[in-house]
Amino acid sequence: MQFEDDAVVGVLGGVETIRDGYLESVIAREIEYRLVVELGFYVPRSTLGNYYALRLDDVQDIDYSFTLSNTASQLAFVKCIWTQEAQFYLSLDPWLESEAFASDKDADYFTARHARLVVSSRPEPEGATFS
Predict the structure, then answer these.
(1) What are residue 93's phi and psi, to 5 degrees?
(2) Looking at residue 69, what is its pLDDT?
(3) Closest CA to 72 of 28, 41, 33
(4) What number of CA atoms fall less than 13 Å from residue 70's CA on the CB side?
(5) Cα distance between residue 95 and residue 97, in whole Å
(6) What's the pTM value of the predicted model, to 2 decimals?
(7) Is 57 in contact with 34 (CB distance < 8 Å)?
(8) How many CA atoms lie within 13 A of 99 on its CB side?
(9) 53-92 per-position pLDDT tens digit
(10) Given the DSSP bridges, would you call strands 79-82 and 88-93 parallel, antiparallel or unpaired?
(11) Distance between CA 101 and CA 104 in Å, rounded?
């Protein structure tokens, strides 16, 4: 299944989606002078499929912190909205998950002009301890 832009928001919000999953990969690269970020999520209990591949095109802003001692692999809260500025916004560590706007207190966020989500099923990663 594939979703585009504001339709992605409806799929990523709520239970049994990335909010109850694990961040597996973050890849950032430049394509034709635009920043592209690809995020891969393993979601063991999703009814749509257990792998969510999110591609953010024309990324405008990133605030993503990663350290070996504090990996953001398992997600507890997620804020995903389509902003009034016609941009996709995703925070993997929001201040308040219920807010319907991008807050300056949110952390680990991405803002992009275009979002595409592909949901599929695949075998559980080898050696994984997801339960």
Answers:
(1) -150, 65
(2) 60
(3) 41
(4) 6
(5) 7
(6) 0.87
(7) yes
(8) 16
(9) 999 999 999 998 866 665 556 777 889 999 988 899 999 9
(10) antiparallel
(11) 10
Distance CA 117, CA 5 (A): 8
Q: Which residue has the tokens 């995903």?
A: 80
CA distance 56 to 113: 8
Task: Please give the backbone phi and psi of residue 54, each rounded to the nearest 5 degrees, phi first.
Answer: -110, 125
Residue labelled with tokens 């991405």: 110
Sign for the pseudo-dihedral over CA of 8, 13, 17, 18: positive
Per-residue H/E/C for the chain: CEEECHHHHHHHCCCCCHHHCEEEEEEEEEECCEEEEEEEEECCCCCCCCEEEEEEEEEEEEECCCECCECCCECCCCEEEECCCCCEEEEEECCCCCCCCCCCCCEEEEEEEEEEEEEECCCCCCCCCCC
